[in-house]
Amino acid sequence: MKKHKDYDCNLGCMVENTLEIIRGKWKGIVLTLLFDKCYRFNELQRQMPGVTQRILTKQLRELEQAGLVVREVLSLKPFAVCYSLTDLGRTLKPVMHCLKQWSLDHGHEVYALETVQD
């Protein structure tokens, strides 16, 4: 997943690296949900109609590998796992808030331009 191993690059490289880490159709939703509380896998999946078990598992694993999400086994019988944000993951909250606000403020403009060009 790590696109840039050497961080000694131009200014845009750092932004691209961050976007590479949070890129994925469902990662933004997962992160946003986990800002509020710990979720079990099925609870997360119910919050995201349309996501498959395979894709959600893949996205959670990638977030876990990036050090943003932690997977905690709560019990063995019945087997239960809870996903929550790490301290590093919680540092993304203001970033995600800014992305959401930008989308609210300007998303319609981008959509209108894309629609005209199609």
Automatic annotation (TrEMBL):
<keyword id="KW-0238">DNA-binding</keyword>
<dbReference type="InterPro" id="IPR036388">
    <property type="entry name" value="WH-like_DNA-bd_sf"/>
</dbReference>
<dbReference type="Pfam" id="PF01638">
    <property type="entry name" value="HxlR"/>
</dbReference>
<keyword id="KW-0804">Transcription</keyword>
<dbReference type="InterPro" id="IPR036390">
    <property type="entry name" value="WH_DNA-bd_sf"/>
</dbReference>
<keyword id="KW-0805">Transcription regulation</keyword>
<dbReference type="GO" id="GO:0003677">
    <property type="term" value="F:DNA binding"/>
</dbReference>
<protein>
    <submittedName>
        <fullName>Transcriptional regulator, HxlR family</fullName>
    </submittedName>
</protein>
<dbReference type="InterPro" id="IPR002577">
    <property type="entry name" value="HTH_HxlR"/>
</dbReference>
<feature type="domain" description="HTH hxlR-type">
    <location>
        <begin position="13"/>
        <end position="111"/>
    </location>
</feature>
